[in-house]
Every structure is written in structure tokens, then in C-alpha cells.
Amino acid sequence: MKVRAHMSMLFHLDKCIGCHTCSIACKNLWTDRKGAEYMWWNNVETRPGAGYPTGWEDQERFRGGWEYKDGHLDLRLHSRTQGLFRLFFNPALPSLDDYYEPFTFRYSDLFTAPEGEDQPTAIPVSMITGEPMTPEAGPNWDDDLSGSPLYAKNDPNLKALDPEVRAQLEEIEGVVFQYLPRICNHCLNPACVAACPSGAIYKRAEDGVVLVNENKCKAWRMCVAACPYKKVYYNWATGKSEKCILCFPRLETGQAPACAHSCVGRIRYMGVLLYDADRIPEAAMVPDEELVESQLSLILDPFDPEVIAAAKAEGIDEGWIQAAQKSPIYKFVKVWRLALPLHPEYRTLAMMFYVPPLSPVVSTVEKAFRASQGNGGLVRLDLPETDLDFEVYAALEKARMPVKYLANLFAAGNEAHIVPVLKKMLAVRILKRQESLEGRPTEKALKVLADAGLTLEEAEAIYRLTTLPTLEERFVLPPYHREMAAEVWKDPLAHKGEAGLGYIQPPLRGE
Amino acid sequence: MNWNALLFAVFPYIALTLAVAVTAYRMVYRPFSVSAQSSQLLEQKRLFFGSTAMHWGLVIVLLGHLLALLLPKGLLLWNAVPLRLYLLEITGLGLGLWALFGTYVLLARRISVARVRAASTPMDYLVLVVVFVSALTGVLTAVLYRYGSFWFPAVMTPYLWSVLTLNPRPELLQDLPFWTKLHVFNFWLFLALFPFSRLVHIVTVPLGYVVRPWQIVVWVRKLAR
Ligand code: HEM
Ligand code: SF4
Ligand code: SF4
Asked: What is the pTM of this model?
């Protein structure tokens, strides 16, 4: 056992309102620069939908992630020698049009237009060429456009669904969608690292953050193609690849990443996970249906004395172990088993986790239920009729957001991983609703709770951490001891005096 | 001093010094500036035709030149059989034409594709022009003054060695035709531009990729000790 610590984020999709505040916070902080205009290290997608870059999940085309065949784990992109032969031209690289041509508006036209009959307009211009252009795509071009034949229909996760279920999804009256915020998953078995011919990308052992060393990057751009989540971007102005840095400068100063901190829906949680680095390769080498289980088995129990001793032996300090014990991520992922990684079948062992969304499920069944009562019709959003929830619970397969679809997103198609999660979440909802309606947990509610495999205390804890957490409960950040990190490059006291000056070269005499 | 000596005995040392010293400085002290500056994100199709043709043509032809420099005797031995000489010459010419075509495509692309133009510096154009002249004069020499692989070991190899051993003999080139002289001079110009342009990417070919482990994990703190 080789214990290492990892900073992980959790997205409670049931709470995401699709406001894109996270994306804007990230853009303002990190990618509001020349060459980076088109990059969204954090983006939010409407699902079902095509995502950003358009169709990124189509690995036949973009060749991201790993392939497990005949007992071997290989990059889908290339073998090592193939990699060298494709340096001159990388056939799997997305083009700018797969993202979008970044644009702004010529606001000055509003002031300089001559007097006339019409209101002056600010025309859109390309942020690359400066020429006028007609925007035809954007990072959230299909926002809320689920059910559309142009975008949602091309979602690869719909492939394995019955034609009937698909038809239902596209019925205008029944249109349903969820949001999927995405950042780099800071994977345990990152394909970007493996694909880089220069060896410029690395994973930090201390906290698992995956970074591009911009001094080593030589623009071979293999990482861009190899990342199955398309979360490495090529900066056309600097000739270097860039990616989400999990706001490590913020983490090192005790702040949550900007996307998480600014999240309006408060859907994001941040905390430490301890994992067993020795078993990474074997965890990625199991059949698809076992992937979730094998990945979660890498995450260790921070209360286990053996794990604690091993962690200390690896140089993980007390503060981090305590943070791991209080980690909201550990609770959601391992204790309650409510969260799953995005697309485990890519086998990069993604370390950001998602609680699948529940809300849309409820409304459809409401429709079905009302239909059975002879008064079906448009979906009504003003719940509650007491029995509705029980109806949903018993008929998850009729859920409006098909379980199969969620399984394709979060469980390599294995519905057996999604159903228990939805049941637990529903059970908690039923319990709380009954409590507020009846003033106590009713028999019926307790029965559902037991069926979902939860105790009353667990349900209460899930409820509290889901709906009422304080900032400190959502973000349990370990002490980074930044002074020690600074020691790497210079005397911490000298560093303190120079902080904020941004010397690129040492300010030596004569330089 | 005559022009011949200036261009082929003095300038080569300026070019070589710049190429070695500035490249080393850049690699060590300005590593962020070292990059192949790919423009594939901005335009793909024409890059495919241009870049693959130019690179494969140039890389193989350059290796051929290197071989002639290091093993002139071997080359002559190989050429002793006429069929082998023809084969070599035809392959060389083919590769040269391929490189010429590729460089032309890249140059045209850089000028005519708005996005690529927006991302270009004057040096990007200059480099392509120099490479284009290199390929063009090379192809002209091959066509006009047949069997270069026969006379290269007799003229070029001693000349290049004379420069490399600090005992330059520019007179060896004195009577060569114009296109061939331009080809040689253009090479020194290429070397002089090398450290100041994206050409430095040539020395960063990541051959180590073949042997390194897939994953790279770094202990930031342990670096300090
Ligand atoms: C064998 C090692 C080499 C590798 C791995 C390599 C790789 C690359 C790459 C990745 C690019 C960027 C292409 C893009 O826009 O995506 C490039 C561009 C370029 N390379 Fe190389 N190259 C090599 C050798 C050479 C040689 C020997 C020359 C010339 C003698 C050369 C001249 C150029 C030029 C002129 C460009 C710019 C092309 C343009 O303007 O679009 N390269 N190279
Ligand atoms: S999600 Fe992040 S760590 Fe994983 S492969 Fe992509 S860029 Fe690398
Ligand atoms: S800020 Fe939060 S709620 Fe808003 S889109 Fe981003 S993740 Fe969703």
C-alpha cells in the first residue's frame, strides 16, 4: 500500500442551476488572455446535448482515453512510436471549429456611428483575426436546447437507449435536461500525461493536481487529443498547452478553487481523499462493468489505523489526514455511495465525482401518475401530492431522465450503479417531506429508507450536507504549508519579500 | 578578402556560433520560448499536406546530407553500381520535390488563411522562405548538375569538414555554379536564423518518449531536498 493524498471536487448535480457563474469566475481568473479566449477550463453543458467541444465524447473520432484489450492497457491515441511519427500532424486533434471561433463585439461602433435613422449596432468580430464574423458556435451554444434535433440528438450517451425512450426524450412537452459542469478530472491514470512526448505534464504527488510544465511543452499537442474529456487546450499564441490547474495557488492559500467558491447553486464540495497509488494500474484493467467498483476500491478509509500509519510513512502530515477524515467527498463517495466519476470507461480514473441529478425524475412520474388518475397532461411543477414520491420510488425505470442515460454518463452503462443512488436520494427526500407534512418520519417513509439501505442518522447527515452545509463544511481544505512549497525554489523569507513582483528571471546584477 | 571567403569562410562561423550559443542560452534560460508553434488548431487540411510533405522530405534529405558528411567513402562505394546511383538520385530528387511542394503549401497557407496569418510573426514567414529557397536550390542543383551523390563527397564533404575543423577552404566552392553556391549559403543563413526562430524545435525531438514510463508523478516538496 502506497498512500497518497488527493484534492477532489464533488458536483451535486441535483443542485446545479446552469448559471455558468463557475465558468465566468474561471475565465476571469485564468483564461482571459490572448490565445486562450476559446478555452473554458470550467464549462457547463446542457444534457442531453453535444457538449463543448462539440461531440467530445465521440472517442472514435477524438481518440481520447485508454483501451483495455487482451490484458493490455493502451492509449487509444497512439503507441509510443506512432506518437513520434505523428508529430508533424496530429490526426486526432480537434480544430478550432470543434470548439468555436472566439468573438467579441466592436463596441466602439456604438459611439462612432454617424447620426441616422437606425440605432447603431456593435458587430461581432473574431478575437483571432479581428475581422467581422458571424458567430456560429459557442461554449454553451445549445444551452437549455435539449430535445433539439441539432444538438441533443447527437449526444453519444443516447446511443444505447431504446428508440422508444429516445422518442420520449425528444417529445417537446416531455423535454427534460440536466446540467453537467466539467473541469479537468485530475485523473489517477491521466491519458494527457501518458501521451506527452516531451514528458511535460505531471501529477503532483502531494495533492494529485495535474499540471503542464510550460517550459517543457513544445507544442506537440498530443495531450489535447489524448484527454478523453478534452480538458487540455492548445494556446495558439504562446505555442503551449494549458489546462485547469485546480486553482492550486488558491488551494495553497486555503481557498477553494474559484469555480467552486463562486458556485451559485453551492453544488460543489472540495476535500481530501487518500488513495492507494500502488494499485492504480490494476484498477484500470478490469471489464467495463467493474470499473466503478475497482476505482472506488482505491480510495482508502482515513480512519483505518493501518492507512493512517502508511500515510504518515509516506510523509502525509497530520493536518491532511484530519482533513481526509472530515472530507465531504469521502462521505458522498465512499460512506454513502452517492457519487460516481464521469465516464469511468475512459479508464483515466477521474478524481472529480458527481452526484447524479434527481429532480427531473420526479416531474415525469408525476405526469404518468396523473395520467393514471385520468387527469394527465402537461407536467406540473408545483408539487407536492404526498404519494407522488412513493410512486417514483417504485417506478424508477419510468423516470423522465432515463436511468440508462445516467448510467452511460457515470457508470460505463451499468444501471446497477445508478439505481441505488437515485433510491437513496429519493428516500431522503421522501423522509424530509413526510417530516414536514406529518411532523414526524412516517412508517411509509421509514420503510422506503430501509429499502434504500439508509439509517435515519445517515439520511439526516445526507440531508444536512446536501441542503444546509456551511462554507467550511463544503470546502474542507488541508493546510498546504505554503512556506514549505516555496522552499523548493528559494529561501521562504526572501520569497515573502518578493511576493507579487512576478520576477521571471532572477533579478541578478547585470541581467 | 573576396566575396567567396566572406560568404563561405567567415559567415559560416558567425552562423555556427549563433546557432550553438543562442540555442543553448534559449534552451536553458528561456525555455518557455522554445516551441514548434503548431498552428494545427487554426487550420488543419492544408497543414496536413504541407507539414507532412515538408517534414518527411526535409528530414530524410537532411539525414542523407549528414550521411554523406560522415561516410563519404560508403556513399561512393554504394554508387559504384550505376543502378544504385540512379536509385539514390531519384529517391533524393523525389524527396526534395516533395519537400518543395510541402513548403510551398505551408507558405501559401500562412499568407492566405486569415487565422494563421493572425498568429504569424515576420520570422515565421522568413523561416519558410529560407526553407523554400533551400529546397528549391537543392532541387535545381540535383536537376542541373546531375549526380550530386557522386560529387558531394569530393567537394562538399571536404569543404564542410574544413569549416568544422576550423581550417576553412572556401576555394573549394569557388567554381561551383550559382544555384549550388546559393544552396550552401542559404544553409548557413538557415543556421543563423535557427536560434531566433521556431526552428529550435528541431533539436527538441522527443525521442526519450520511447523509453519513459507512461506516468510522471512529481513530489514538489522533495525537489527542495
Ligand atoms: C524531426 C524533427 C522535427 C519535428 C518533430 C518537427 C515538428 C514540427 C511541428 C510539430 C511543427 C508545427 C506544425 C504545426 O503547425 O502543427 C513544425 C513546424 C515547422 N517545422 Fe518542423 N519538425 C522537425 C524537423 C524540422 C526540420 C528538419 C525543419 C527544417 C529544416 C523543420 C521546419 C519547420 C518549419 C519551417 C515549420 C513551420 C511550418 C509552418 O510555417 O506552418 N522542422 N515542425
Ligand atoms: S481530465 Fe485532466 S488529468 Fe484527466 S486526462 Fe484530461 S487533462 Fe489529463
Ligand atoms: S456556478 Fe454552480 S450552479 Fe452555476 S452552473 Fe456552475 S456549477 Fe452549476
From this structure: 0.92
